[in-house]
Amino acid sequence: MQNNENKGNNTVLRLILCLPIILIIYFAISFSNADISADEVSAVTLTLPSGKTLDFEEKADVAFYVNLYLDSDDLSKKLRDVEGETPLKVSLKLEERTIDYSVYPELNESGCFLERADGGYAVIGEVTATELLSRSECEYLYEERLLPSLYLQSGEKSTEVLPQTYSWQFKKLDGAFYSDTVSEYSRTEGSYSFYASEGGEFVFSVEPTEYTVTFYGEDGNALATDSIGSLIFPTDTELTAKVEARWETDTVAGYGGNASYSFKLLYDVLPEISVSTQTVKTGDVIVATFKHFSDNEEISLDTSLKTSELRINYDGNTAFAYLPVSLETETGEYDLVFKVGSETKSFKIGVTRIESEFANVTYDAQKYTDASTPEAIEEYEKLLATVNETVMSPYFEAGVGFESPTGRSVLHKFGTEILANGIPPSSYLLGIDYGMQEGDSVKAAERGYVVFVGETVKTGKTVILEHGYGIKTYYYHLDETKNVSVGSIVQKGVNIGIAGTTGLSAGTGLHFAVSVNGVFVNPQGFFDEGIRVPKA
Questions:
Q1: Helix H or strand E segment including 92
Q2: Residue 500 carries which DSSP code?
Q3: What percent of the chain has pLDDT over 70?
Q4: Minimal CA–CA distance to 288: which of 356, 358, 339, 326?
Q5: Ranges assigned E (strand) in 205-352
Q6: Per-residue pLDDT at 369
Q7: Mean pLDDT across the stretch 445-453?
Q8: pTM over 0.70
Q9: DSSP string for residues in 237-258
Q10: φ, ψ (nearest 5 deg) of residue 95
Q11: Is residue 418 helix, strand or coil?
């Protein structure tokens, strides 16, 4: 008797313990089956495969997506492999919850199905599928029946040209024709280009029944050709192109209409590239010049030479770039390979090392320790990175040599190998050290824009000037600064400070440096020639 009672108690206990699981299963089934009506749903949100979202609150739209969910018949498995296919996601918003499901449509009444939130599948009835495929949110499925695309083909480059206006009808699955509201168009005239040496042609994704092309010159007059291949100009020339295209309505293919295109077309002559020299020393600057270069073009440089990134500067119609040769560059021969479009231009650059001296410099032990900490090194590197972000307009007079920042003699030249306090490893000087006297003035070597006035552990009181085109001068170890503030412009020869001993200095002195695009170079070239700006 006792055993029977125990068995009964155990059965009741098991039922009590299982009750939460039973309730969870019940609610999961109830929620997944979603015994709901359209009146309970306040809104529907769709997420298209493109990521665009659409919100519906009208009763007819809400009722359609509720009934689509409720009236679909369960499947044991999905109708087809949809790997790589992005579904149309539907979210039904109720008062306290949402019901989410995904629709996998295709242009076939019997091929549309959905996936419920619980992972179950259901086939959409043919009548409902036809209605779904006729709705505007599913127009993306009719891509092949929408307005054909126009491309400007030149060499390996193909660029889509957008119309300003179009009128296009296409047939949906219900057999009726609808206006295309999906295809893109441009509210303003676009701007396109092609390289004369690569030729060009207009290509439609679907050949029109008929189309015309008209080119207009810079004077507004129509040219006597309708072929890109027949255009011949000696220099870069901007034209206006107009294209009118018409497609006869085809009831079998299911589309037809017309489109108008009007856009600027640049007849682009490939740049002629030259370099100022093909024999350099470390610390020199190569000047690359690009004739017929326009700002819509992309040019790249491939080289193992230790230099800066390619930065294009403009002086009127002349495009050029400075390529500073880092002191870290090994001697040898390097290729400079410029690429514009599908064309390349190569130069051989021979590099030798600048003549180097050696100096054992003794610094105050505490200053040396302070300047050698990771924090001090990081502070200095952060300073260089920050000021290198600024590339200003030119403030200098081209081709006129820099003025010496002091009348004192040079203590250590650019590239001198410095052994600090007899402790290896040695390092190479990235500027010029001047031996100074207390009270000596420090002058701006060239007219410039002040990008930094401040102090770091390594450089002491410092002034940094931007002279334009990424060229900067640096003045370290000042006792005080004068006539400078960030954002101001100082004239060449103006007193900007007093020589001192701040930072890691071995006595009263000035460290003067020049960088181009963030790479330190030999200042002597700027004393001799100033900033070189090529002319076309």
A1: strand 88-93
A2: B
A3: 93
A4: 339
A5: 210-216, 237-250, 255-268, 272-275, 279-281, 285-291, 299-302, 313-315, 318-324, 332-340, 343-352
A6: 94
A7: 96
A8: no
A9: EEEEEEEEEEEEEETTTTEEEE
A10: -65, -45
A11: strand
Look at residue 442 and tell me whether its pLDDT is greater than 80: yes
Helix H or strand E encompassing 377: helix 374-388
Percent helix, percent strand, percent coil in the chain, to nearest 5:
20, 40, 40
**Identity of the amino acid at 232:** I
User: Rounded CA gap, 208 and 369, in Å?
Assistant: 77
If one counts every other C-beta atom within 10 angstroms of the C-beta of residue 411, the result is: 19
Place of tokens 């055993």: 3
Note the pLDDT tens digit of each residue in 293-314.
Answer: 877 788 999 999 999 999 999 8
Please, which pLDDT band fits residue 536 given cuts at 50, 70 and 90?
low
Mean pLDDT (the chain, rounded): 90
User: What one-letter code names the amino acid at 149?
Assistant: S
For the chain, the C-alpha Rg in angstroms (whole number) is 37
CA pair distance 20, 513, nearest whole angstrom: 77
What does the alpha-carbon distance between residue 91 and residue 88 come to, in Å, rounded to a whole number? 10
Nearest CA to 470 out of 319, 325, 322 is that of 322
Calpha distance 200→218 (Å, rounded): 20
Q: In whole angstroms, how far apart are CA 337 and each of 288, 296, 300?
A: 12, 20, 8
CA distance 78 to 120: 9
The residues near 322 (Cβ < 8 Å, ≥ 6 apart) are: 285, 286, 287, 288, 308, 311, 313, 469, 470, 471, 516, 517
Q: State pLDDT tens for residues 19-74.
A: 444 444 444 444 444 468 888 999 999 999 999 999 999 999 999 999 999 999 99
Residue 1: pLDDT band with limits 50, 70, 90 = very low
Q: First-to-last CA distance in the chain?
A: 113
Position 432: which residue type? Answer: I
Give the 3-state secondary structure of residue 143. helix
Q: Which two tokens stand for residue 203?
A: 């290509």
Q: Tokens for 105, please give them.
A: 């449509």
Mean pLDDT of 226-247: 93
Q: What angle do CA 92, 95, 101 make, to 5 degrees?
A: 20
Residues in CB range of 38: below 8 A, 6 or more apart: 59, 62, 63, 66, 67
Which residues in 309-459 belong to E strands, given as ranges? 313-315, 318-324, 332-340, 343-352, 358-361, 410-412, 417-420, 427-428, 432-435, 441-443, 448-456
Q: Which amino acid is at 230?
A: S
How many percent of the chain have pLDDT more than 90? 75
